[in-house]
Structures are given as C-alpha cells and as structure tokens.
Amino acid sequence: MSAPTLPIPSADPVVTESRGDAIVFEDVAIAFDQNRVLDGISFRLARGECKALFGIAGSGKSTILKLALGLMKPDRGRISVLGQDITNMTESQLSEVRRHVGMVFQESALFDSLTVKENVAFRLMEERDVSPEEIDRRVKEALQFVELEHTLNMFPSELSGGMRRRVAIARGMITQPDVLLYDSPTGGLDPVTSTRIIELIIKQRDEYKTSSLMVTHRLQDAFIMATHHFDKQTNQMQSLPRGQQGEVPMSFLLLQDGKVLFDGDAVELKKSQDPYIREYIS
Amino acid sequence: MELELSSPAEFAKDKILAIQDYAMLAGRAMGNLFKRPLYLGDMMQQADLIGFGSLPIVVLTGFFTGAVLAVNSAATLGRFGSLSLIGQLVSISMVRELGPVLTGLMVTGRNASGMASELGSMVVTEQIDAMRALGTDPIKKLVTPRLFATLIMLFFLTIISDLMGLIGGNFVSTLMLGLNSREYWTSAWQTLVFSDVFTGLIKPVIFGFIIASVGCYYGMSAKGGTQGVGRATTQAVVAASVLILVVDFFVTRLLYVLLGFH
Question: For the stretch A207-241, what's the b/e string if a residue is b when 16 or more beta carbons lie within 10 angstroms of its beta carbon?
Fold first, then answer.
C-alpha cells in the first residue's frame, strides 16, 4: 500500500475531502499576538496513514495538533476530523469527536497526582459505563503494548522520561482511537528509547491501522517509519526490502514561514530540488 | 523580565476581557451542577481538603479573635460599669462580621492559593489540555467540585469560628475578668436576632463563591511556567482577600436595607 500523497507546494492549495480522510485542513491560519504562525495551511491525512510534520522550532507544528483536536480555534479556514467539521464546534460537541482521537503530548502531560493505572484508565473511568474488571483488563493490555505492565501503581514522577512517554502512548491508545496525534514523541530521549518509541508507533500504525499525525524534529525517525514495518511474529519492526520501501502508509509534511513547503512521501522528499528541503534533509 | 507598558485603552480592554473570562468560568462552573456527570467523589475530596483541612486554623483564629475582642472591650465597658455587656458585644461582632470575614480570609490564604497553584501547574504542564483531549471538561471536573465544596464548607467553618469566638470571649470574661459564665452565655445568646444570624450565614456562602471562583480563575489562566504559577497564586490570594472585604461592605449595607435594620 502506498502512502496517499498530495502535490508538492502549491501557492493556493485546495484540498478535496474524501470519505477516507481522517483529518483535513483547508486554508487554516492562526496568529498569536500579531505573530502569524500558520498562514493558509492545507493538507489531508488519509485513514490509516501516518504523516510526519517537520519545521523549525516555532513553525506551528504543535499548533496543528492542537487545532486538529479543537484545543485551539483557527482565525481562518476549516478543519475536519473523521468527516466532521470541528471548526466552530462547542466544547461539548468536541468532546464527542475527541473520543475517537488520542494525543501524546510533548512532555507526556500525565496527571501527576494519579498513578500510571489511573492515568491510562482515565478515559475509560470518565465514560462511566465500563466495568472495573474491563478497565483493569484494558489497562493491562495497553501497558503490555508499551511493555510497562509492572508500573501500574507507580506515579509519573517515579518514571523515566522514556517510560512517561510510553505511558502517554498507552493512555492515548487505550480506547483504540481512529486517529493518534504525537507531539515530539522522541524529543529529548536517548537513541535506544527513541527507537523503541518509534517501534511502538509503527506497531500501532501497522497492527491497528490507526491514522496519525506526528510532530518531530528527528528526520531519521520518520525515515525509519517509512522504511520499516511491524512484524507480528517477531514482535519487532523489520526493515522493508529495498524495492518495497515507500510502500508503507507514511508521508512527510514540511512547514516554512507558516505555509506548507512540502507534502509527499519519502521518495518525493529525497528527490526534491528545493534548496530549503535539500538543506533540511541533508 | 522586561517591563511592558500598555496604552490605557489596551489596559482597559485586558481588564474587561479578564472580567468576561472570569464571569464565563464562574457561570459555567455553577451551571455544571445541573449537568451529568456530577463528580461527587471529587466534591467530597475537596470538601475534606477545604473543610476538615482548614479546621485547625479556623478554630484558633475564631478562639483568639473572640478572646482579644473581650480583652479590648473590657477596658471601655468597665469605664461605664457595663462589663456584663461583653457577651453581647463578642456575640454580635463575631456572628455578624468577624466570624465570616476572618474565616473567609483564612480559607483564602489556605485554599485560594492552593487552587491557583494546583490548577496553574496543571495548565503549564499541559495537563488541562490533556484532560480536554481525553474528552473531559476541566471546568466540570476541577472547578465545579472546588466551588461547591468551598461554598458549603465555608458555611460550616464560619459557624464553628463563631462558636470558638464566643468560647474565647467566655474564657477571657470568666478567667481574667471574673464574670459569671452563665451570665455571659445568656447575654450572648439573647442579643442575637434573626437578621444577625441571617447576615452572618449568608456571607460565608458569598465569600466561598469568591474564594473558589477567583482561585480557580487565576489557576486556569496561569501563563509562563513556574513563575507564572507563583504569580497566579499571589494574585488569587490578593484579589480574593480584597474582594471579600469590598463585597462584605456592600452585602452588609444591602442586608441592612433589605432586612430593615437600622
């Protein structure tokens, strides 16, 4: 399966929404105190696809995730998530949409007064129609997925940065959302832990076919995701043969000066002759 | 930190926006009481923290306020040979004014600061955003339980403070001034009329609303890391304390008019 891609830079991009789209941004703009962070962003994330967002610090990558979740409202443009226009939704309407979307925050954002189990189970406990036995089972399952089942009764402050990030992934995926948003999931982590987290994201993509937007500064993480798939039998990610690389649902989106500079797959990115892109990926 | 000067128009706009945000937060927090889920568990936990947790300071404050009131008034009343009126004076002062205001100020220092720092920390560490992302309304989950727990607990804390003030006054009257304890309690009890008790019990409900809504507002609007949390905490205590004293004046005057008290 090849990653659905969009044409590379377009001055006035118009995105056509299809039934298969998980997220669609159309001409979205937002400014903070006269500083225009996003200025007419358009892209679409197909169902089952993973899109890595790149850009220099302050280019609005995290803002895109917060807009996609309705945590911020755009000044202009339209955002739709899973076929629903969320641009002007009220907080209670957004709560419904958010049930189908998970997010892993930059600094994990775990509730520091709750245990790992309570953090992971938070969404299920809030739903109030899930039995305690079912909650226990699903929490254990989610923690097994990130290989942290022994941390059930620990507090976030007792965990390392990498473990906190994995608990955040478990919390984000416990209800098996249709879309997962990752905000720098490997930021500030050592290479071994980073690879482990990337492996989990690949596992989530390939096993559960979850659509995801991933903000990252590490280009190599996204290239690993574009060249590896998750092998269920070995329970590890495996490199794809050379001819099949680029056949996983993975795409790249590069931001520059509040606009989309590039939106396409790994092959197109490598072929790009744009000087900024060449410098960025070199 | 660089000092930024804003124009009077911008300053006024910011203040009006802040009042609007505060009013919306308080309104939504109140309205949530009629929507499910109710978070009764969180409400009970907050009631325990605010009510039972504030008990020692409220008991001590009430007792010593009543005692010092008796000591100070003894000199003046003694000059007119009216030392027996101490019970009345302590009773009226505590129930109408000092009990509600001092308890309000004590709980402000302890809980408005706690709410602002706790919620502020959650804001700057993105825990509030995470809660929204997980489909939970933070106002319903965090602000409403704090608001109603403070409102209810301050009512009972004020009653305890009033009682402790009277006990403090009795302690001074009997042990230091040699007055009859029974006489003290009789005069303290008989002097109170409906309007005194009503005024003294309506105030803590209003003050409780001020403490929690101001504390939560400053917490939820904290910006700028740990420094921002510290600033929010200080602002919450100052704003709630000043607001209590200002509102106390207007409520007292209003109740005087409404209850036809002169």
Answer: eeebbbbbbbebbebbbbbbbbbbeeeeeebeeee
Q: Return the number of other C-beta atoms located less than 10 Å from residue A128's C-beta.
A: 8
Closest-CA distance, A76 to chain B, in angstroms, reads: 22
ipTM of the complex: 0.82
Chain B interface disruption, residue of A63, A71, A184, most B CBs within 10 A: A71
E strands, chain A, in order: 21-32, 35-46, 50-54, 76-81, 84-85, 101-104, 179-183, 211-215, 228-231, 236-239, 250-256, 259-264
Output the pTM of the full model: 0.85
- Segment among A9-13, A125-129, A256-260 with least mean pLDDT: A9-13
Candidates A71, A91, A128; nearest CB to B133: A71
Which of B134, B142, B220 is best to mutate for the A interface (most A CBs within 10 A)? B134
Structure tokens given for A203: 């596992």
Nearest-Cα distance to chain A for B62, in Å, is: 33
Cα separation, B179 vs B90, whole angstroms: 14
pLDDT above 90: residue A278: no
Residue B144 has pLDDT above 50, yes or no: yes
Question: Which residue of chain B has the CA closest to A177?
Answer: B134
